C-alpha cells in the first residue's frame, strides 16, 4: 500500500512538471492547430520545414485611421513589411507564419540564410484563420509550385505513403495562417532535423523559362535589368516594369520555330522591395537581380506578393562591374511584324512626317534641370529657379518632338516615335537654320538610327500602326549613339 501511494505521488509530481522538449514537439500542424485553446494559442510546439522566407505588406486594422492623427507621418509609414515563413510538416500540410515587422536596418537575406530549407520548431503560435484557394489565390499559387513533395509523406498513423503514389496526392485545398508572439523567439532550428522535404527554387535561364515553363507557373531566374519603366522617379510604387535580359536571350542563333525576344518584361506588382534593391533600381546604372518565385505569363513575367527580388552579388558576374570598360551592347529585336506592345526594339528609318500638334518647347534650369521656372517680373527672358533659389539668365530649352518614320525593317506599317532630347537636337542641328527658325521641310528626309525604343501601342485594325518612345538603356552598356544623316535624294 505504501509503495503504491508513493508511486501515485511521483506520478502526480511528474504530471505537474514541464514536459521535455522532445515530448512537447509534435510533427503534425493539423493536430496542434485542432487542439489550440480558446484564445487561439497553440499549446504545443510543432516541427516543420521552412520552404520559403519572404515579406508581405502589413494590412492595417480598419480602425487605424482613428489613431493616425496622434502618430507622426514618418512613423506611420515605417515598419510596413512583415517577415513571413511558408512552412510544411511531414504530413504535407502548409501554414503561413507571420512574424515581426522588419525595420529599415533589417536584411531579409539574413533570415533566408537562417531559416529557409531548415527544419525548425514553431513555439507559441497563434492561429489566425483557415484559408482556401478562393480566398488566397496567390498563396496557393506558391503552394502549388511546391507540390508534389519530393519525399514520401507521413500519415497520422505513423506510416509512410508509398513513393509511387506521391504524384497522385491531391493538392492541398486549405492552409492555416499563424502568427508568432511579439518579442519572443517563435522559431528555433532543430538540432536533429528530418531532411528531404525542402524544395528549393531552381534558377533557370530566361530562354529555358520561355521554352518550358507553362503560363501561370512559378519560375526563378537571374537577369540584368537594362531598362526601367517607372511611373515616377522612384520604384516605391505598387506597380512598375523592368526589362531584363541574360546571355541565353542574347545568343545570335535561334532554333527553327523559336519566337522569343532578346528582352523580357517583368511586372513588379505588390512585391516588397528591400533597401539594396530599391537603391539599385533608383540609379540609372545596370543591376543584376535574382527573381525568386515569380509567375510566367504571356510574353512577360509577374512578381507578386510572395516573390523575392535580391541583388545578385556574385563577383564573377561581369555585369556587376561599376567601373572599367562598358559592357557589350544589349542586342534588341528589330522592329517587325512580330513586335508587340510593352516591349523593347531597335529601328532605323527616314523621317517622312512631323506631328506638329504634339511639338512644343519649354525652358529648364541650366544648373539643376528643374523645369518649373518662374518668369521674373520686368526682366525679359529671365527666370527664377525655386530649387536652386537663383536667377537663370540662359535657361536650357527642352523640346518634345514626335516624327513619322519609314522603316526598312517594317515597310507595311505607320511608325510614330517620340524622340529624346539629344536626338531632337541632332535632327535640328543638321537642319537648315536661320532667322526664320526650323522648318518642317528641313527635318523631312533625315535618316535616324539605330534607335532603342519602347513600344507603347501596336494597332492592327484598320491599318498597322505602331507608337514608340526612344529610350536609353541602363548605364554600363555601350549604347550606340543615334545617328542622324541626311537621306540621299533620288
From TrEMBL:
DUF4503 domain sequence ranges: 88-473
Record InterPro entries: DNA_repair-scaffolding, DUF4503
A Gene Ontology BP annotation from the UniProt entry: double-strand break repair via homologous recombination
GO cellular component: nuclear chromosome; nucleoplasm
Protein's name according to its UniProt entry: DUF4503 domain-containing protein
Organism (species): Aldrovandia affinis
